[in-house]
Design a protein that fits this description.
90 residues; 2 domains
Length: 90
């Protein structure tokens, strides 16, 4: 008997990364493809900065706090134990 977890069905996650339709990408430590959700969020941010509100610093801080909370819940730790850094080298 095998136990299936949501993480075993990778095909649904691959749909978020169009590059995986024709490519197997293994170099994730330095540069990696962006998911559709990330490119959508970046596009929205750029549109807002170009034609909407320019001063979005408070929004960015709030998003960072939400990210830290979500990561803490995902890995089972306190929010204060999560650090957001620029890259793996840092």
């Amino acid at each position: 008997m095998s136990i299936q977890t949501p993480f075993m069905n990778l095909s649904r996650y691959r749909e978020f990364f169009p590059i995986t339709q024709n490519t197997v990408y293994l170099n994730h430590a330095a540069i990696s493809p962006l998911s559709l959700q990330v490119t959508d969020a970046i596009q929205l941010h750029l549109e807002n900065r170009s034609s909407g509100r320019i001063d979005v610093y408070e929004d960015i801080l709030a998003a960072k706090d939400r990210l830290k909370t979500n990561i803490a819940q995902l890995i089972g730790c306190q929010t204060q134990q999560v650090a957001i850094i620029s890259n793996t080298s840092e």
